[in-house]
Structure formats: C-alpha cells, structure tokens
Design brief:
Blueprint (H helix, E strand, L loop, with lengths): L13 H11 L3 E2 L11 H12 L12 H15 L9 E4 L1 H13 L5 E6 L5 H7 L3 E6 L9 H7 L4 E7 L11 H11 L5 E5 L19 H4 L2 E6 H4 L8 E4 L2 H14 L5 H10 L4 H4 L1 H15 L6 E2 L7 E5 L8 H12 L1 E2 L1 E2 L12 E5 L4 H13 L1
Parallel strand pairs: 1-11, 3-4, 3-5, 5-6, 6-7
Antiparallel strand pairs: 2-8, 7-8, 9-10, 10-13, 12-13
Helix pairs in contact: 2-11, 3-11, 4-10, 13-15
Bound molecules: 4'-deoxy-4'-aminopyridoxal-5'-phosphate and glutamine (GLN).
Length: about 375
C-alpha cells in the first residue's frame, strides 16, 4: 500500500526523543517540561472523592459546568474579562487539543497562519494537516522580541490566523502590554483571528503581570485563548486544559471538539473545580517558580554557560558559545550520553533549524535535582 503522508517532514517530537534518551542513559532529565515533585495532596484527595462517589461517566461535551464556572471566575479575577461558562469556555484534553481544534475549526486549505519562531512544536503540524500555509517569523535575538513591522509586512489577504504564546516556550520570555496593543492595532477591523497559547499564564516573574489577550477588548472578539492546568497544578499527566473565546468562535470550536474527543476525564474536572475555589492555588505560582529560577541561576553562576533572560515559564535557556561550536542537537545528545544531563536544543523549534548555540533546561525540579544538574554544568 502506498502511504501519502500528510506530514512527510515530521518525525517524533523532541520531547519524546530527549526524555527517552535521558531514561536510556540514566541522565538527569531537564529536557521535557514537567515537574519532578508531586501535586497537592488535597487535589489527590478530591480525585478520590469524585471517583469513589461515582462520577465516572461522560462529562458534558463542553466540560463539567462547575469547572467552567471556576475558569470564568479565574479569568475575571486575573484579567477582568467576562467569559460566559455556558457558551464561551470549553474544557479540552490539554492545551494541545485546544490548539489543534482551533486550527481544525478555522483553517481552510490555503489560509495563511503567522507563527513566531522558535515555535512550540504542535502548531505547525496542525496547520499543515489542515492545508494551511505557515508563515514563520523569527523572534528577534537577543530577547526573543516580536518585530511588529515584520508582522505587518507578512500579513496578506490570505492571512487567517496569528498564533502567539506568552509566556513563551522555549525562550522563557514574555510579551509586554505594548506588544498586545500592537497586535490589537494590526488585527482590528480584519478577519484575522488570534490563537493565544497562555499555558504558563501564572508563571510571570519579577513583579510583572501576565498580558493575557483577555485584558484587551479589541482582541477578545477575534481571539481564542488556550490554557492548560498541567503547569498550574503540577500535573502535566492529567491533560486537562481549556479554551475561552467569544460565543461565535466557540460555537465553531465545539463543532470540531465534539467529534475529536467529545469530552474530557470527568472526575478529575470536578476535583479541579473544587480545588480552584482557593485562588492561592494559582496566584502564588509565580513566586514558587521565580524562587526555582533564581536558585538554579545561583547554582550555575560559575559555569561557562551563559543565562539568557527568563521572565516567565519554567524554562531557562543557556548559551554555550564559550564552550563549543557543535550543533545544539549534537551537543544536547552528547551532554545526555556522556555527562548525564538532558536538555532540549533550540534549533528544533525553527523551520530552518537555525543554530544559536542555545539549550533549554526545565527548572520545575526539586532543589536536589537542580543541584545535581548544576554540578554537571559547572564542570563543563
Ligand atoms: N503550549 C505550550 C507552549 C506548552 O509548553 C505546552 C506543553 N507544556 C502545551 C501547549 C501543551 O499543553 P498540554 O500538555 O496541556 O497539552
Ligand atoms: N510542553 C512540554 C515541553 O515543552 C512538553 C510536552 C510534550 O511532551 N508534548 O517540554
């Protein structure tokens, strides 16, 4: 049988490759982004409560109402915006499904989608599967900032969507209010939609506020916000996320969502709904991760790796230009095999695999893990 691949260039994701390599070589795994500590015992008790109380059948297609109500309250509380739980919020199987469904629901063959690179790895394949045309724009180095003039010049009458991601994976940078205002100016009065990946929304550091699209009235009407509880509750394996969008967009989103997954794990949604009633579950997260960022930074102060600015997420980029001129993929593999420390090379997030001699390290780890990793880094 002849297979006509829809994704001929795509292999296995870097996260699977590097986590697999870390396991094989018994290396410390700072590659794939996930915490190595547990989530709250209270949250675990709540999952037991709802599974044993018999909430083990399908959730409503849109998601459990109690959770949608909590999300509506969270968005109101954090960003002062109103999203109606009935018609404007849907629970998804992680942000990945929220992003995929947004693209599937709105991208027709030949539509152009602007993506900023380095780009989180699930955006481009989803666009391509649906016949969309990717228009990559490189973030400007250093700082990984958006050049809005370049965005303006890249927009054509075929531009259908712009995907933004702040706090940004893999760079660990954040968009400013000025950036969102520039975006608002560009898309207002057009048919261009914004998909805003905000999975690290509660992890913005140094006293800054997360610039959610929800804060910008001119953007809300044409935007889909995608988020995930994986990061917020230290449970990436739950794969529960959500999408918030105005009713007209959400109606189209749900048309696809209902046939992609129909609904998401029911008892865990109910547990989350209870847990999120206490706003400290998400409001203190930035302090927790800022302390980890600073701890890791202090531990590697004497190493030859150079830290890039990290203003959000749980990723720290390290520049190794003083150490070797190897390709980042080769160096990341060698570090894992020979030194016992796994990271993510940045070039895989660019369509042209451009080399910047940068590796991404996840600091969502216990102090002990960070200390062991830093010891290795300092010896290189
Ligand atoms: N977007 C970004 C920027 C991410 O880093 C991740 C994964 N951490 C996702 C989307 C996917 O989130 P989820 O695991 O909830 O699908
Ligand atoms: N988002 C995680 C990261 O950036 C990985 C998620 C995945 O493995 N797909 O490391």
């Amino acid at each position: 049988m002849q297979i006509h691949s829809k994704l001929p260039q795509v292999g296995t994701t870097i996260f699977t490759i590097m986590s697999g390599l870390a396991k094989e070589h018994n290396a410390i795994n700072l590659s794939q982004g996930f915490p190595d500590f547990g989530c709250s015992p209270k949250l675990l008790e709540l999952t037991q409560k709802y599974t044993s109380e018999g909430f083990n059948q399908y959730a409503p297609m849109q998601g459990a109402l109690a959770l949608r109500e909590q999300i509506s309250a969270l968005i109101q509380n954090c960003y002062g915006a109103e999203y109606h739980p009935d018609t404007e919020i849907t629970i998804t199987a992680g942000a990945t499904q929220g992003i995929y469904t947004s693209i599937a629901a709105f991208i027709h063959k030949g539509d152009e989608v602007i993506v900023f690179e380095p780009a989180y790895d699930c955006y481009i394949p989803a666009i391509e599967v649906h016949g969309g045309v990717v228009k990559p724009i490189a973030l400007e180095y250093p700082g990984f900032t958006i050049n809005w003039t370049k965005v303006k010049n890249a927009m054509t009458d075929k531009t259908k969507m712009i995907i933004i991601n702040s706090p940004h994976n893999p760079s660990g940078t954040t968009l400013s209010e000025h950036d969102l205002l520039e975006l608002e100016k560009l898309v207002s009065g057009t048919n261009v939609m914004v998909v805003s990946d905000e999975v690290y929304e509660h992890m913005v550091f140094d006293g800054k506020a997360h610039q959610s699209v929800a804060r910008f009235k001119g953007l809300v009407s044409q935007s889909i916000i995608v988020s995930s509880f994986g990061k917020t509750i230290h449970a990436t394996g739950w794969k529960i996320g959500y999408v918030a969008a105005p009713k007209e967009l959400m109606t189209e989103f749900r048309k696809v969502h209902q046939f992609l997954v129909f609904c998401v794990n029911h008892p865990f949604q109910l547990a989350l709904a209870d847990y999120l009633k206490d706003e400290t579950t998400y409001k203190g997260l930035h302090q927790f991760y800022q302390a980890k960022r600073d701890y890791f930074k202090g531990l590697i102060a004497t190493s030859r790796f150079e830290l890039e600015p990290c203003t959000g997420t749980y990723f720290q980029l390290l520049n190794y230009k003083k150490i070797t001129d190897e390709k980042d993929t080769d160096f990341a593999i060698r570090l894992t095999k020979e030194k016992g420390l796994a990271s993510i090379p940045l070039s895989v997030f660019y369509s042209d695999q451009q080399q910047q001699q940068l590796l991404r390290f996840c600091f969502a780890k216990k102090e002990d893990t960070l200390e062991k990793a830093a010891e290795i880094l300092c010896k290189i």
